[in-house]
Amino acid sequence: MAKRRQRVLITGIAGQLAGQLAARLEADDSIEYIAGLDLHEPSHDLTRTEFVRADLRNPLVARIIDSTRVDTVVHLSLTAVPSSAGGRSRMKELNVIGTMQLLAAAQKAPKLHKVVVKSTTAVYGSNYADPALFREDVAPGGAPRSGYSKDAVEVENYARAFGRRREDVVLTILRFANFIGPTVDSPLTGYLGLPVVPRVLGYDPRLQLCHQDDGVEVLYRSVTGSHPGIYNVAGPGIIYLSQAIRMAGKPTVPVALPFVQGLAGTLRRSGRVDFSPDQLQFLLYGRVGDISRLRRSYGYEPRFSTRAGFENFLASGRITPLVEQETVRGWERSLHQLLTRRPASKSKVTT
Amino acid sequence: MTQPHHAEIIDLDHARRRNAVGVSTRPRCSAEIAPGQACRNYAGHSGLCRVHEPEPADHTAAHPAGGDSQPLVTPDGDDEASFDEAIAAALAFLRRRLTGDYDVDLYGFDRELTEQVLLPLARPLYQRYWRLRTVGMEHVPADSGALIVANHAGTLPFDAIMTKVALLDEHPAHRHLRELAADLALRVPIVGPLARKTGNTLAHEDDAQRLLTSGELVGVWPEGFKGIGKPYRDRYKLQRFGRGGFVSVALRSQVPIIPVAIIGAEEIYPMLANVRFLARLFGVPYFPITAQFPLLGPLGLMPLPSKWVIDFGEPIDTTEYGTEAADDPMLVFELTDRVRDTIQQMLYRNLMGRRSIFF
């Protein structure tokens, strides 16, 4: 193939996902050049990637796009966690104003022909009156009005406006479900790592997770292929939160709804779990995206189902269970022996 | 003197009755619904109507799922090995539940929990308390999608639960019914997650269509809160059938609509009044005063032991109209009315054949 080799710019290179993507792209010969942009050093050991320390909100970004002569921009610097960004207002600045600046610069770059934007299924909100599966084109009932999900909605709006103005550019918006995997560090993993996991009394949300490897693979295919449009990205299937806690072998405590906000505030201040108030609704109803469009357009079946992805995360041993799965198997065996040894107990058990 | 010709004035009702009763030679059902009062339904092959036809002799064998799902019950004279197996199965089940080792589908349906724990709780109500009898189970397909449409009543949705048990236990293919629930039901703590785990999902066009095209049996009660919260004096009078959304979904997914009449559910909590201001206070669509609640206190939550019949009617084919018919509001209205009329007729037919509310 006499195709021109691609030059890629990745924003938010310090992030896990961006680092893995850069490593994956480095191994690909059809990628000529990779630049990584962030305020912090990349967490991954990258060889070929040129690290550019810059703030997205700075108009300098336009010059970077120009001077590196990139034709593909992968925008991954969307932060979900206020504490890592240094407060909610700074997080909003980085997310929304950063995206604005980047896309404004991208609009003026004639060589650019592909933009991939990371978004989240959080744009659907989380509401009891929502369908079980969100399609990409369905308007959700309870559109998010605050926090991270609102940032994501605004980022998507800017991206779509950009797409309308530059119709020659292939624009891919990827709505990822909550990431999971051995090296993922998110509010969800922190929450499940608590010694006792609090749950909202009477609610059991359905969780849909995206394994980090699948996330990287879909991003990689978005960079190398051509998939214009919006896609939900997640593993097939769901697990219940209660099921996830049981799989993790954690004890749980139900908390009545009126006390949940207070508890979340305490946990946030203690620095253990950064669950922003807007995400609490997620603990009531959860959310699940329909991934059939991803399957159709990418021809890709995620390697990890939600459950397999979560098991993979647990296998990394980052969560210490109170009760090991093996212990439960041990109980099962000894109970079985106990019950089958004495026929006198037969009538008690069978009724 | 000749009598001038008068036009013969015939009472419309009289003429109709004469046509209907006098001319028809179809035999009537020979059963009695009360001493000296014959059943007015047409008879089938056995000389009895569908309501009075004797139940199949192997009625107890008609609950195979009940036997299957309870491996703990060991028949008399069984050897130790099968007892051991039962113990092992029960313990393995407990272990799986404790360690989260089970699968749920995208809508949150937890098959294992439903079959092993929740439906066995409803089965005594089904078999002993309301002594359910099903008619026309052969109309429900064994392996393809179909939309079950039924009347809704009884203050609490026991009719939905019983229909679910009926299809799992008495259908030869032991089918799980996936009910479409009101968003309000999914919002209520504890009830909402339980509803999802037993196979309910939101009454949303997307959900319904996806389930139907994947070959599931979907149940809908289009009267909604108007039906389930209607006063006792309006029993068996079908309310408005929503806006016909269920018909357009069936048309789009090209599955048959199966009209179902549920007899008995309308008498379990005879609702005498609806306290509007309490309903508003709690944010619910109705706050019932029933014959037993709140007069009898907690005991008033006990439903009355009416005798139930679930009559599955002949499927209404939707393939003849094509998928584009879903966008034709006139046709959708017509079909909605047809389904509603069919269920109303089925209700009347079964009511006429009924001896009493309780037997």
Task: Produce the secondary structure layout.
The complex is a heterodimer of chains A (351) and B (359).
Chain A: E1 6-11, H1 16-26, E2 31-38, E3 50-53, H2 60-68, E4 72-75, H3 82-85, H4 88-107, E5 114-120, H5 147-165, E6 170-176, E7 178-180, H6 187-192, E8 197-200, E9 206-207, E10 209-211, H7 212-224, E11 229-233, E12 239-240, H8 241-247, E13 252-255, H9 257-269, H10 282-285, H11 292-298, H12 306-315, H13 325-341, H14 346-350
Parallel strand pairs in A: 1-2, 1-4, 2-3, 4-5, 5-6, 6-11, 7-10, 8-13
Antiparallel strand pairs in A: 9-12
Chain B: H1 12-23, E1 32-34, E2 37-38, H2 64-68, H3 80-98, H4 111-129, E3 133-135, E4 146-150, H5 158-170, E5 177-181, H6 183-187, H7 191-197, E6 201-202, H8 205-213, E7 217-220, H9 225-228, H10 245-253, E8 257-263, E9 271-274, H11 276-282, E10 288-290, E11 309-312, H12 329-352
Parallel strand pairs in B: 3-11, 4-7, 4-8, 5-6, 5-7
Antiparallel strand pairs in B: 1-2, 8-11, 9-10
Detailed description of the structure:
The complex is a heterodimer of chains A (351) and B (359). With 351 residues, chain A is an alpha/beta fold. Chain A contains 14 helices and 13 strands. In chain A, helix 5 (147-165) links the parallel strand 5 (114-120) and strand 6. In chain A, helix 2 crosses helix 4 and helix 4 (88-107) runs parallel beside helix 5. The relative contact order of chain A is 0.13. Chain B is of the alpha/beta class. The longest helix of chain B has 24 residues, at 329-352. The A-B interface holds A 128-133, 135, 138, 201-204, 206, 237-240, 242-249, 257, 288, 307, 325, 328-329, 331-332, 335-336, 339-340, 343, 346, 349-350 and B 72-74, 80, 83-84, 86-88, 90-92, 94-95, 97-108, 110, 183, 186-187, 189-190, 192-193, 196-197, 201-202, 204, 206-207, 210.
